[in-house]
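User: I'm new to structure prediction. If I give you an amino acid sequence, what do you actually give back? Let's try with this one:
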Amino acid sequence: MMADCKYLFFSIKKWRAMPSSRLDFINRYIVVLIPLLLTTSCSHQRHSLNPYEYSYKAENPALKVEYKIYHINAHTSRLYYSIDNTQVLYQRMASASTYKSSLRISYRIHSNLSAERKSYLDTGSVYIADSRKELKAEKIEGYLNVTLTKGPAKRLEITLRDYNKKKEVHEQMMLQKDSLPHEQDYLFKRADSSVIFKRNVTLGSPIYMECSRFKLPKLIISYLPSSGQFPLPPFSETSLSTKKIKDSVFTINAIHENQYQFTPQQAGAYLIGSGKNKLPVSIHVSKGAGIDKIYSHQQMIYSTRYILKQEEYEQILGEGDLKMAIDNFWKQVAGDEGRAALLIKHYYSRVEQCNLLFTNLEEGWKTDRGMIYIVFGVPTKVYRSGKNETWVFGKEGTPDYIVFNFIKQGLHTTEEYVLQRNTSLKESWFKAVNTWREGKVLSYP
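Assistant: Good question. You get back a string of structure tokens that encode the predicted 3D arrangement of the chain. For your 445 residues, that looks like this:
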């Protein structure tokens, strides 16, 4: 019955080049894979990855989706989604002129945070059939309304299925809806009304905010510039202070009922809240093309600090031609331009990815989790429990087995995690750094 179907797997991969070109031998590339399958023999694959581990994958082979929960009123919340269509399988019938996706987002709200107890407060789903005559890289965005009342924290389980591709991905998040404004009570949008999922914006871009559940006549905004500090190595016996100094504080009034707008004029972090002792939400403002892109050779050098010796770092920064200086470093450790290109692709892809994942009061690559992510890569396993997040690399009992523990800090926002440093991590750290310096990409299966 389906023998007349043709499947088009539209996949666009591109290495984000800087405006001035990162290296002469690195070029932007776009690869479009269009396999036309004449049968429906596609194996069903389920991912058993921990939800957090899955979200840390830089180049996920299945499906890429972002979610944002927003509490509208006392009884209803809204689940926004943004699906990367370059990972979606579009189907076209032989007689049709359009390509169509076949997706479904399903959710279940658990009555508690325990994974063992299966009691649901609300369930639902939406079917998504994205039709288009020509395939190009875009986001498939929309939302579902869910029933959620005020009370103790709950667990939201979400599944995205691609029926054409016969794959699905799972994600979980904690729902917090109590008597005080929380991060999930704020919705950030761009000038074109698109939702800001990662709370990262480009300098000079207007930010539109909503807070429907609470009638707030004004919001208080604190500007926190970057500290300029790098995380200390994981074996350090001391740690940097996570306390941020507020540079300025100002208020903005509602432009409409529960709607606000401001345009940041300086790069850095902004804490947005409703008053004293109210948990603020942060948004990070970056220069250049966006938080997920490296926009200068100086920024490249900064983020390479983790594998540079102190004297190398100072020497490279002191060169007149920064591009040539960082080029020469990678050529030297790689031995040839081809391997240097590979190292550059993987290293700075990690920098950009952890900017998307971990940016909060600082750019993601300058956080403790960003440091470990860049040098060690994607964790083999990730566990979260309360205020703890644990990253496991390698298989227990093997020489490469290593564990990093992060503790959530409640100083400003919900995503500040500080590494528990220990002198026992020294050997593993230098082994990892030397792997890069020997011209090899460090990664764990």
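You can read the tokens as a compact description of the fold. Here is one thing that stands out. Residues 5-177 form a domain with the Immunoglobulin-like fold (CATH 2.60.40.10).
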